[in-house]
Target: Fumarylacetoacetase
Amino acid sequence: MASWLSIPKNSPFSLANIPFGIISASSSKVPAIAIGDYALDLNAFASSGGFSQLPSIQQHLSVFNQPTLNAFAELGRPVHRQVREYLQNVFRADTQYPQVLKDNAALQKSALIPRSQVTNHVPMQIGDYTDFYAGLNHAYNIGVLFRGKDNALQPNYKHLPVAYHGRASSVVPSGTPLHRPSGQILANPTADPKIPTFSPCKKLDIELELAAFISKPNELGKPVSIDEAEDHIFGLVLMNDWSARDIQAWEYVPLGPFNAKNFGTTITPWVVLIDALEPFRAQGIEPGNRDGLLPYLREKRAETAYEIPLEVEVTNKGGQPTIISNSNARNLLYSFPQMVAHHTITGCNLRSGDLLGSGTISGTEPKTQGSFLEQTNGKTAIKLADGSERMFLEDGDTVVLRGLAGTEGNYVGFGDCTGTILPPVSF
Amino acid sequence: MASWLSIPKNSPFSLANIPFGIISASSSKVPAIAIGDYALDLNAFASSGGFSQLPSIQQHLSVFNQPTLNAFAELGRPVHRQVREYLQNVFRADTQYPQVLKDNAALQKSALIPRSQVTNHVPMQIGDYTDFYAGLNHAYNIGVLFRGKDNALQPNYKHLPVAYHGRASSVVPSGTPLHRPSGQILANPTADPKIPTFSPCKKLDIELELAAFISKPNELGKPVSIDEAEDHIFGLVLMNDWSARDIQAWEYVPLGPFNAKNFGTTITPWVVLIDALEPFRAQGIEPGNRDGLLPYLREKRAETAYEIPLEVEVTNKGGQPTIISNSNARNLLYSFPQMVAHHTITGCNLRSGDLLGSGTISGTEPKTQGSFLEQTNGKTAIKLADGSERMFLEDGDTVVLRGLAGTEGNYVGFGDCTGTILPPVSF
Model:
């Protein structure tokens, strides 16, 4: 698809994408889409008649005058699809509606804003954030470190998508710097008795994840069936689930990670609609309809993963960037619809804006892991382009996650998921 | 304190209490207080000049025209204190302001509503719900069941308040019935390999807890010190953290409970302000300033627990109620301010309306435990008054938690925390 707008060939936001987000430029927070180097302010667009050629959205235009995408998401997938396809039409070189934007200099001036001039925000009001553990290779790698090869995967792992509730308040948009957390760590893990010390985290790590935003809610007591689950998913973002490994090692028994994860979780601000990812469906590590899965988790089709190449880049204080890992979204054992079906099987209610993380997405080869812990095991340092070495993150390090499906000129990507580590706060 | 209003001597809502909640009667949700058998509609009260004798609240009256208590809570503890003391004054037999309500039949008629005629709601918009594990005896009892007496408590237990993130969306007000959840359980836990079956939960349990609502938020990256922590707490409620033990046993490794807890958590709808509980301060199992605690957790004073007798009642289908347990809030090893200090030590931000559960509050003697699992260990049944026996809950069972501090005529209580188990939904 060619556009009358100049879109760089390497842009993650080609005409094939049309991701939705929340921006602020001169004024308040408004919904927008990203296209090439621009954001289209949907509040300005809608209030100037930009949707005049899409009759079905007329009764819902107030969703574009909101500080979050929750109201738009709640309209449901058929509406998201119509709006995305309409906006693709508006931007196409051979648009059916040239009068809407292509030949409308005034609306271009008021609604089409260079992305370098906008601030991005967390796109939805997140009710609850759940983090799954669906990256099979990550679960295996971590299991080997803690329990050895023979017991690496717990007996439940291939029967259900393991998950824990995460912290919604500290989900931040890409670009937000985070202080290195402090807390209790065991300086000497083999001492008896075990006496913790108070310290800044010394094993600060990342986790490369995808995450889904929920669109359509379900009522308490009404599970979502696997066949309907995808229609409850609005779209995906990239996510860095920052992890303090030494705090985690001391605190996590018996109820799981808490302070090790609650100080910040970074997401890309543009939600890539589930329909935009449809062309990249692929079979994952195992098919979504594999034998052995209980019926409530069994998908109708085998291809329930996505072919999305992923990368992790680390840079210290403006130095030379180093790609430390290349992975792929195919490394997930469970699909997002399977996560929705499992999450709700007890009757748990999901709300519009709830966030479901995939778990860390690692490959099986060297330099394909989605965390430092897996790559270094605290023993084998990662070498950066500036000659320095890393077991874990240092203050001043900037981490960028990227994910880009498709081919040049037609990329469907997430943009950069960026975070920089600031020194610990003083006590 | 005597009131001109007739307040039953056994009411948990004496003049010494003045808890805040959200009610709806004929119209929309509004803030209210409970007093005796009545609710005072604070929207009607404020809009008819009820607060005319409290000058400091005049600029904030809009907080009483909201569907949640978040805005009122955010005003901070000094304001909560002034409003509570003013309302106590208004209701006192020797009130300084008889014209406000005592001698104002019109306002009594419009704002003072029999509680039997109102619907209660979850009083705050809960951003995140965190559940701690601060009940020492519960942690010990569960530890004995899983790991034996010698390793019952994990090494971290006496150094930090263990916690996990819970599910906010399914927190419901007292009186909301819940379906027995279904999910994966191990019908034969000793078989090899372990193959789960899909089933309604067969080990449905309760957990007797207190929970704190957060008033004043803290910014991301700004920990709350132990000395300031209490001023971030709005007040307490009773909480039943329903637990599906068989689902939990299969799913919980390695990241903690998830589906076993996400189908419903019941709270009392009236928030007892932290100031109302001040007279019931007591030393808990160990002092809040005990040696060995890291400084960020050490309270200035020893008396950081509360003397609040608690009870658990079970009734099947309108039969005769049975008190199956009597416990006390003194059984918590950590105080709510310690929980706030620990939660935020990494820089995690708490928001107004966040809910912090205490963990199950059990005693050390028979019939003082806050869960069926501890009382029965799946072996020794609890006998109910109707002659039937329980290892865990049956369909049709109604559980009521109660907590009542103080003495007759001056009780500071929470009211009933009630839930009835409905049959599982059909698949």
